Amino acid sequence: MHLVTPSPRATAVDGSVGADRLLTSLSPRFASLELEQLASALDFALEQVCLAINTERSTIRKRADEELRQALAKIERLRDQLMDENDCLRREVSTLQGSSLLVGASTALRHAFDAASQVAPTGATVLLVGETGTGKELFASQIHDLSPRRNRPMVRVNCSAIPSALIESELFGREKGAYTGALSSQAGRFEVADKSTLFLDEIGDLPLEMQIKLLRVLQERQIERLGSSKPIHVDVRIVAATNRDLEKGIAQGTFRQDLYYRLNVFPIRVPPLRERPDDIPMLVWNFVDEFSKAFGKPIESVSKDSMLALQRYPWPGNVRELCNVVERAVIIAPGPRLTIELPPLSAAAVAEHSNTALVDIERHHIVAMLERAKWRVRGDGGAADLLGMKPSTLESRMLKLGIARPRNHSS
After folding, report:
1. Which pairs from 48-56 meet CB under 8 Å and 24+ separation?
2. So what CATH class is 107-177+185-271?
3. Distance separating alpha carbons of residues 217 and 272, to the nearest angstrom
4. Per the count of CB atoms within 10 A, which of 46, 139, 239, 277 is most buried?
5. Would you kindly state where each structural domain of the chain is located, as residue ranges?
6. pTM for this structure?
């Protein structure tokens, strides 16, 4: 048998086909196809990797967004919880201070409180000076309640509410037949207030002829009833109040200087509400508690925006005006969360408070309306609409007054 020995070029040492022969055995077309498949596989693998990366990025972004939303929601819940706790605290403080409207801890109010506490036990004449609605009568009651005369009721007289023809008989009393229609004798307010306190409100409106007679009573501590010449001794402590500038009245000849000195023994200035904005939340809750009970409408919280707007408003009517605003808000409240709308600032109010810079009043009013409109200038219900002016005019006034939208408010 003839044996054929393979050529060294045909077989490698390990028995496999030689590399050079293998390469030469592959056609160019086959090699090109293999390369295309390999490139396609690589492209597919790269696409899958990119897709996986993008998917992971999207998942991470969604997860981060969700975590951020949850964190913001938690912060919002904590903020609401803190507001509710502050509301409850304010209500508790108001309750502890009683039903008096003289609540607050501002420096201006505390100064007036301290002065009233100092003079109350002395029996000295007190002159309360302050704008309408600041609570001068409440200060008078406080002085009386802290005095040795507190066991007898304080007697009140509104000098501007009594006709000039009747004020003498109201203050000093009358005898039967003193004038037409005087069918019986009647004690005057001074006699009724014997051993007690007589509060003369709006003393600046007292007619000049009555000022002379009042001065005599303060000097001699005795009165004469209308229609009688018999003097009656009275032991009366005088607390007077006025919203007028009595020194200006002296210069104009409408108020007697000697009477002013008799009354101005211990003057106390009752601060306006715009000077004590920190007291407004306590006052608001005092009124809310009062009116919610009266109307049977439980109020659990007050809008934060409303409270901020109340603190920025200049309050020409002071505490009395704030009381009216809160009462109206409670009446129309649809639920337990109270939203309070500010009253428009009238031209008369601006004129009455000319001692406050008109620019400051205008700025306060515009900011209050912007707060009410959530800092939206244009459109229905926007600040311009509420103010009754063109949006461009309002924007111009805001620029001139230096009013800028807070960063946490968008257009």
Report:
1. none
2. alpha beta
3. 32
4. 239
5. 107-177+185-271, 276-343, 358-411
6. 0.62
